[in-house]
Amino acid sequence: MKSIFIPIMLGILSIGPISAVSAQGKETRAQKEAAQQAAVKSWLDAQQYVFVPQTALPMSGRAVQLTSEYTFSVTKDSVESYLPYYGRAYTAPMDPTKSPLAFKSKQFGYKVVERKKGGWDITITPTDQREIQSVNMTMSTDGYGSLQVTSNNRQPISFNGYFKKLKDPKTKSKSK
């Protein structure tokens, strides 16, 4: 009986410190998640963020995994898009070598609506672009989201990806 009792007691005593360590790990994970959510909220409030697409979802055809560094940048005074387009055009493009989703806009409407279950819906309507009707983004509190571009002369296209802070060009280090 003693031979069974000792290993059982040692097992119970060793579980106590392990559960205390795992509880401490959960607190730090929760703290990290809270810090990430606060950072995402600050990017949104400051209008200083970049959407990095990982997957393109055209209306017709299959999903395309993106390997190049495409971006959609938002600042208070401009919106800059460098996104690919896969889909159908209803009119012939003026320059077929350029992507219709590669543009820079200084005049645009910007609207943010908070979602009921967390996150935000962002609508951007460039007024100085003839091709682009609106850009709708959904941003989660963790920084993941989607972007949908509605065009006047093309099928809509969606992208899934993540958001990150826009690096300030004034603080870039000069290396020569």
How is this structure best described in words?
The longest helix has 45 residues, at 2-46. Strands 1, 2, 3, 4, 5, 6, 7, 8, 9 and 10 form a ten-stranded antiparallel beta sheet that branches. Strand 9 and strand 10 form a beta hairpin. Helix content is 26%, strand content 36%. The termini are far apart. It is built from one helix and ten strands; from the N terminus they run H-E-E-E-E-E-E-E-E-E-E.
Keywords:
26% helix; disordered C terminus; 176 residues; 1 helix; ten-stranded antiparallel sheet; 10 strands; alpha+beta
What's this entry about, in short?
It contains one helix and ten strands.
The SSE string, one letter per element, is HEEEEEEEEEE
Distance between the termini: 77 Å
Low-confidence stretches: 171-176
Per DSSP, the total helix count is 1
Radius of gyration: 24 Å
Q: How many E-type strands?
A: 10
Kindly estimate the percentage of residues that lie in beta strands according to DSSP: 35-45%
| Class based on secondary structure composition and strand pairing | alpha+beta
Mean pLDDT: 81
The biggest beta sheet reads:
10 strands, antiparallel
What's the helical proportion of residues?
A: 25-40%
Overall geometry: globular
Question: What's the topology here?
Answer:
Blueprint (H helix, E strand, L loop, with lengths): L1 H45 L2 E10 L5 E2 L5 E4 L4 E4 L19 E4 L2 E7 L5 E7 L5 E8 L4 E8 L5 E9 L11
Antiparallel strand pairs: 1-2, 1-3, 1-10, 3-4, 4-5, 6-7, 7-8, 8-9, 9-10
